Amino acid sequence: MPHRFPVRVYYEDTDLAGIVYYANYLKFIERGRTEWVRSLGIDQTRLRDEEGLVFAVRRVEADYLLAARFDDELVVETEFLSFTGARIVLRQTVFRGDERLFEAEVTLVAITRDGRAARVPKALARQLVSGDHSSAT
Q1: What pLDDT is attached to residue 54?
Q2: In what side-by-side order are the strands of the sheet with 99-112?
Q3: Any bridge partners for residue 56, and if so which?
Q4: What SS3 state is found at 70?
Q5: Is 29 left (phi over 0), alpha (psi -120 to 50) or beta?
Q6: Domain spans of the chain, in order of start
Q7: Is residue 49 annotated as part of the catalytic site, yes or no?
Q8: Terminus-to-terminus CA distance in the chain, angstroms?
Q9: Which of 88, 86, 135 shows the shortest CA–CA distance to 112?
Q10: Beta strands in the chain, from DSSP E residues, in sequence order
C-alpha cells in the first residue's frame, strides 16, 4: 500500500504562468520520501550518526502529466518497487484528487559519509522491503 503525504501549493511554488514550477515537484516528492521513511520508524539522523549511512538520489525518471496551480491540495504517494543491497527503487506519484499530475521512478542508494556506496543493514532492509514498523533504526 502506498504511503500518502498531503502537500498544498503555495504562491512560491508557482511560475510566471501561475502553475507549479517543474522543479518543485522534486521537492514535493522529496518530502514524501522523507515521510515514508519516517513512517517506517527509521530515524535518518540516527542512521547517519550511528551507522554512517545516508540515502542519496541516484536517478529520477519523471513524467509531467498535468499542471498544478496555486492553492491546489495535492497528495504525494510513495510506493516501494524494489531493493538490491544498496539500491532502493520507488514510484512516486502526485495527485490532485483522482487526477495524476506527476509521476517519477526514483532510485536511491545508500552511501557512506565519504560518498561510497554501502549495503543497507539487514534489519533496515527488512523494514524498507516489508514496511515493517516494529524495529526503528
Answers
A1: 93
A2: 3-8, 73-84, 87-96, 99-112, 53-64
A3: 109
A4: coil
A5: alpha
A6: 3-130
A7: no
A8: 21
A9: 86
A10: 3-8, 53-64, 73-84, 87-96, 99-112
C-alpha cell at 66: 498535468
- The C-alpha atoms of residue 10 and residue 73 are separated, in whole angstroms, by 10
Check residue 50 and give left, alpha or beta (phi > 0: left; psi -120 to 50: alpha): alpha
Grid coordinates given for 43: 530515524
Q: What is the rounded average pLDDT of the residues 41-67? A: 94
Q: Judging by beta carbons within 10 Å of its beta carbon (0-12, 13-18, 19+), is residue 10 exposed, middle or buried?
A: exposed
| Whether 37 contacts 54, CB under 8 Å | no
| pLDDT tens string 76-109 | 999 999 998 889 999 999 999 999 999 999 999 9
User: Which is catalytic among the residues 13, 15, 63, 72?
Assistant: 15
Which alpha helices (H) appear in the chain, and where do they start and end?
Answer: 24-39, 44-46, 122-130
CATH class, domain 3-130, is alpha beta
For 18-37, the pLDDT digits (tens) are: 999 999 999 999 999 999 99
What is this structure's pTM? Answer: 0.89
Q: Which residues pair with 74 in a beta bridge?
A: 7
Measured between alpha carbons, how far is residue 131 from residues 55, 117, 123, 124 in Å? 17, 23, 12, 10
